[in-house]
Design a protein that fits this description.
Elements: E1 2-7, H1 14-23, H2 28-35, E2 43-51, E3 54-62, H3 72-80, H4 86-107, H5 122-137, E4 142-145, E5 148-149, E6 154-157, E7 160-163, H6 167-172, E8 178-179, H7 190-199, E9 200-203, E10 209-218, E11 228-236, E12 242-252, H8 260-269, E13 274-281, E14 287-295, H9 300-310, E15 317-324, E16 327-335, E17 338-347, E18 350-356, H10 358-368, H11 372-380
Parallel strand pairs: 1-4, 4-9, 5-8
Antiparallel strand pairs: 1-11, 2-3, 6-7, 10-11, 12-14, 12-15, 13-14, 16-17, 17-18
Helix pairs in contact: 1-5, 2-5, 3-4, 4-5, 4-7, 10-11
Length: 390
């Protein structure tokens, strides 16, 4: 499978994405031919530049008519009336809808009433459609990205001077791993945030891949570091899907153990992926427990608040880790006890583990007055297919 990984150490913008794709081998003539299907009047240019002695491609668009799309409906109509492929139309619609929803939340308006300013110019449409076209022409099947460097400081907008990231950009980045640096610049633009949050499967370290192409897309500003977006394109060598998770930990040595059940239940109800205790020994040989919570990055703050409110912990630590996992699904299986849910784990389409759901087994044992271990033993003898034919 051909994949791409964006290294966003200097943030991301629409023109940087296209520049990186062109530098990585995207044919400029073929690219222009596809964008001509928008049936609009514009000029595209490509320059080879250097950013802190790193060669990069600088992509630009010139619109002599200075066209401005004030409403989402205008953009949707323009895309719909074009001759670009249907799949790209649909993804472009999704990206602009995300932009409109972000603006709507920030300005407390209905999506249909949002008035586009900076993102309403034609080059935003070119950036969105161009990024999708470029990935399609390079035959990239899946996209991944690093956490995004936001920069810092303030940015001038039609609404005045706003903090970095701009409010609409911040809305678009909900659930996306980010970090800030002292670089006094807006490194992630609303367009860049909308595109990468739509196309990226996940955010984290570079996935296992055989690198075939590398490209650098130049940003507009000259900064103290190389202001470029780097892309790696190649064949995936990772058989297991992976995602980025947050691990929250705290050591507790002064809490009634009876409280843990309620803490576990609350954390799981609020989105924790896993919760567990480890016996540890603290200073002065005091016995204690290490509480560990595994969660999605966007749930980190919420679950930290629960830990601090519901336990005697006075502080937590956390780190982000890559999780590789088997594909999983729940299958309803007819058994001697009736319909039972089985949890199937698969590797390359082959079922490697099939376990009956514990709660179903416990209910069967209670209803039939049978030992739970006997129910589990009898269900374990059920033979399931060893492939995707389930």
């Amino acid at each position: 499978m051909k994949i791409a990984w964006f290294d966003c150490f200097s943030g991301i913008s629409g023109d940087m994405i296209i520049g990186a794709l062109l530098h990585a081998g995207l044919d400029f003539d073929a690219f222009k031919a596809e964008l001509a299907k928008l049936n609009l009047d514009f000029e595209l240019s490509l320059q080879q530049v250097e950013k802190r002695q790193i060669a990069a491609s600088k992509f630009d668009m010139t619109d002599a008519n200075k066209r401005l799309f004030k409403k989402l409906s205008e953009i949707r109509e323009t895309i719909q009336n074009s001759d670009i492929p249907t799949a790209i139309k649909q993804r472009a619609h999704s990206i602009f809808l995300s932009l409109a929803k972000a603006e709507a939340r920030v300005h407390n308006k209905a999506v249909a009433d949002v008035h586009f300013h900076e993102i309403g110019v034609l080059d935003t449409l070119i950036d969105v459609v161009g990024a999708l076209v470029g990935l399609e022409l390079l035959e990239v099947e899946k996209v991944f990205a690093s956490p995004l460097n936001l920069g810092s400081g303030f940015v001038k907008t039609a609404h005045g001077k706003l903090p970095v990231p701009a409010p609409a950009t911040a809305e678009l980045l909900k659930g996306v791993p980010t970090y800030a640096t002292e670089c006094p610049a807006e490194l992630v633009t609303p367009t860049g945030a909308a595109i990468i949050s739509e196309v990226a499967e996940s955010f984290g370290s570079m996935p296992a891949m055989t690198i075939e192409q590398i490209g650098y897309g130049a940003g507009n500003q000259d900064l103290q570091h190389a202001n470029v977006l780097r892309i790696f394109i190649g064949e995936s060598t990772e058989q297991l899907p992976q995602d980025l998770v947050t691990l929250i930990e705290t050591n507790i040595d002064d809490m009634n153990p009876q409280l843990y059940e309620a803490v576990f239940e609350t954390l799981m109800q609020q989105g924790a992926l896993d919760v567990y205790l480890t016996n540890i020994q603290m200073k002065k040989s005091r016995p204690a427990h290490k509480l560990t919570v595994l969660c999605e990055p966007q749930d980190e703050h919420k679950l930290t608040q629960i830990i601090l409110r519901h336990t005697t912990s006075i502080g937590v630590r956390f780190r982000q880790e890559i999780r590789r996992k088997l594909a999983r699904e729940i299958k309803l299986v007819e058994t001697e006890f009736g319909t039972v849910r089985f949890k199937l784990s698969k590797l390359d389409g082959e079922i490697v583990t099939a376990m009956p759901e514990y709660e179903d087994c416990k209910q069967i044992a209670a209803q039939r007055a049978m030992p739970l271990k006997r129910v589990l033993a009898r269900l374990a003898r059920i033979e399931l297919p060893d492939s995707d034919d389930t």
